[in-house]
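Lab notebook, bench 4. Still working through the backlog of constructs that have no structural model yet. Next entry is a single chain of 278 residues. Request: give me the structure tokens for it.
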Amino acid sequence: MNTSRHWWMLFGAAVSGLLAGYVALVYVSAEPAPLQAATPSRVIVVAARDLPAGAIVTREDVETVAWPGSAIPEGIAQQAGDVVGRGLIVEVRKNEPLLAWKLAEKEAGGGLSITIPEGMRAVSVEVDEVVGVAGFVLPGTRVDVLATVMPGSDRSQTTTRTILQNVRALAADQRYQQEIQGEPQYVTVVTLLVDPDQAEALTLAATEGRIQLALRNTLDAEEVATSGRRIRSLLTASSAPRAAATPRPAAPVNPERVIESYEGGQRTLLRFGPGGGR
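Model written out:
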């Protein structure tokens, strides 16, 4: 009985092995399923190098690269001919895709004019190195404009006030200018983006007084109300006469001391020092 059962177990194991071998053979010999076709890439146009705002795009400024997937940004250029000859409204970095909103029409040309938004104006003012915040006023930075004006001939009425806030600088260039003695000197010209009302205020301040640029954080857009300052307000705190200090009474030398004592209900005062006798 045990022998018969043993043989049945061996037979079952052999059949299982043959079945497993057959399944493996079928799996190996079967043809592999074709891979799912990947989404084809598309060709787009990117900048071949850093390009400044106002530049006219040339063929050497761009190159085409493969953009994988189907998520293509709206307005992207797919041929170099779509962008060559057009001016850049904004600055473009190397390998950055060229989108339609970053480019002016071909008829618009290039230069500063195409970077000015509709309804705005670009006003240039001459400033020295100090007024220009020691060279840190660069295109894209934001500044406040302070004007110092002396009405009439009374210097005490000279007033400084912030007339413009959070103004964007479009350009900052240097050029030569002759002094009265004929010596050449550098003069920095800063171009600011303003609206028509601000353009009038800026021009008047530069003509009738002196302007100063205050560099500000580009993320700080808050406007602060100020009342301006006159020379008189600067001198008030420092020139006002100080109140005379009230002299303290001198402490008496060897002050009199009194000791009170009681003996049998009788009060006695003992004095020491001046007039005390002891």
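Notes after review: The chain has a mean pLDDT of 77. Strands lie at 42-47, 62-67, 121-127, 142-149, 159-178, 184-194, 210-216, 229-230, 257-263, 266-272. Flag for follow-up if needed.
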